[in-house]
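Annual report, structural modelling task.

Input specification for the pyridoxal-5'-phosphate complex:
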Amino acid sequence: MSDLRFETRAIHAGQEPEPLFGAVNVPIYQTSTYAQPRVGEPIRHDYARGGNPTRDALQEVLASLEGGRHAMSFASGLAAESTLLLTLSPGDHVVLADDVYGGTYRLLARVLDGWGVGFDTVDMTDLGAVRGAVTERTRMVWAESPTNPLLKVIDIAAVAEVAHGAGARLVVDNTFATPYLQRPLELGADVVVHSVTKYLGGHSDLVGGALVLSDDDLAERLRFLVNAVGAVPGPMDCYLALRGCKTLALRMEAHCRGARAVAGFLSGHGKVRRVHYPGLPGHPGHEVAARQMRDFGGMVSFEVGSEEEAVRVAESTELFFLAESLGGVESLIEVPAPMTHASVAGSPLEVPGALVRLSVGIEHPDDLIEDLARALG
Ligand SMILES: *Cc1c(COP(=O)(O)O)cnc(C)c1O
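The model returned the following structure:
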């Protein structure tokens, strides 16, 4: 399977026809327990918190797409992150990118902080700053690229070197790029985190998360935690995520095409002060993105004159739905400061008020541009 190409593995990895009737789709194994032929000898799983065949198939395809040996799927992206962070102990330290997903920051600042896990945030586009932030207690360096919502690009291979030099693991949240565009494990990262809710699911109809890694010892510890903590997904959501993975490559091509067109349009618009899109040659992370990504993704953000103007634009589009989240086939628009990033106001992760974030869907780019032109009007 590993010699097959990405698009083929997305459809075949872990997805053999079901043996009883030959169904070409992995069944939704809607069960909490499994009849065991003999005491202590289950067929594969004994109880569905620990494992489920629909979940197994999803995990196999995710591991294959990210190029990792192990994958675990979870009830949400934050459930995956929480479980991973539970491998830390009091006294351990985490270095966090200063533009990470707000929920990741909140988990460290307002949950783990009380358990004695310390952290510092740093601008990870500045390698000197990363080197200065690691201490002998640093166990994890946590990056995200491109970041949310400013689309900063972090050099994953370079940060991996700094993390490993300090004896820490590099965790990369690959939600925005997806494995179709970027494979952090191949660039030196140790663990990939996903909010499956976004592009992997791809249709805004599920909440899920995943971890992918190759380290056997860490995988064994995480498998123990999956069952011990219990933040697991149901089989229906695993089925929907599997279905999403099959069209990931096609969808990402369309997201990138749309985002490129929208970013080009916004760059030439008189009311737009600044466009953040790594595909634009003037973007500070353009070179690194071109090196470590296949294409530049479907997320675009831009700044207008004021927060009131940003709110007015976001409330004026018709095709772009005003909503949080991202990565679905439909285009979404939001104002991060009062919406997705309200919880990081006053923290190092605070974002400009006049910023508008777009998740460019797979509609025809011309219709999206006309919608934005009307809203900016
Ligand atoms: C949404 C998101 C998460 C959290 O995932 P949930 O599925 O909402 O729990 C983490 N990281 C990034 C980059 C996200 O966009």
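The pocket of pyridoxal-5'-phosphate is lined by residues 76-78, 101, 103, 144, 148, 173, 175-176, 195, 197-198, 207, 209 (CB under 6 Å).
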